[in-house]
Amino acid sequence: MTSPRAQLNVLDLVPIAEGGSAAEAIAQTVDLARHAERWGYGRYWMAEHHNFRGVASSSTAVLIGHVAAHTSTIRVGAGGIMLPNHAPYVVAEQFGTLATMYPGRIDLGLGRAPGTDPATARALRRNEVAAMNFAAEVEEVQGYLGDPEPGASVRAIPGEGTHVPLWILGSSHGGAQVAAALGLPYSFASHFAPAALMSALDVYRRGFQASPLPGGLDAPRTMAGANVMVADTQAEAERLFTSVLERFRGIVTNQRSGLRPPAGSSPVQLLASWSPAERSAVAEMTRVSFVGTPADVRGQLADFTRATGVDEVIVTCGAFDPEARKRSLELLADAWQ
């Protein structure tokens, strides 16, 4: 088999283990990022989530700076910042500062979902009008990070002239349309919402308009998310993956907790105790998941990139044990290369 062409990246949700702490989760993220850099992954992204007991990535820009400080070459970024939660000017200043400190290494993925529950969204002073005008908000960020405007009354300092690369994130056609219209790269969240993956990629590619603006593209560029769990045996990979299934069940039932240790010996044993509705919902959310030995997962991932035509894949591994998480990503990197 020829080598897969898609670039491989890591999405880290900075999971807090059941019985563990946020400090431990952040230390594990730094350790994993350093290893991912050595193993040849292209990007290391973290995502904005709020009021999740099992996730420590709420202050995403702060974490990006921390990880960038402890690595040397890997691109570090947001996958992503939920733009309607923030003033575009503040986002531009934050990422302009990061790009000034770590030139050529910072990515800014922008989404418009709240990344939390309604009550927390209100606490964030989320701007629903901004969510409806997402494209205009993206262009505002792009303007602040672009070339200095002579006579501009508001300037992002640091920020202007840094041209931080922007990505549009999404799980529906809306984000695809924005990315296409602005000529920006597009990343689809198929690691938890795969239903519209193929149609959204088609909407993006058919509607794509090349952009001469800083960060704009001449041709479409796409990325898709996937859950992975790689181990020396199929049985061990499936056992480790039960932690991921439990996390998704918590989302479905609104009973979210810290990342739990593996439950039972296999997904079949775990799912037998769930209701049919829970099994169906979790199965749909985790449809883009590749679990098994290095050779098997490599083949599944290669088939996925061929079927979707994506240029990059961003993988997330939800193993409870941080050493198993590292081992999984190391085995995948070796197999992919």
From TrEMBL:
User: GO CC annotation: what is one?
Assistant: cytosol
Q: Which SUPFAM superfamilies match?
A: Bacterial luciferase-like
Q: Where does the Luciferase-like domain start and stop, copy by copy?
A: 16-311
Example of a GO MF term: oxidoreductase activity, acting on paired donors, with incorporation or reduction of molecular oxygen
- State the family named in the UniProt similarity comment for this chain: To bacterial alkanal monooxygenase alpha and beta chains.
| Name of the protein this chain belongs to | Luciferase family oxidoreductase, group 1
Biological source species? Intrasporangium calvum (strain ATCC 23552 / DSM 43043 / JCM 3097 / NBRC 12989 / NCIMB 10167 / NRRL B-3866 / 7 KIP)
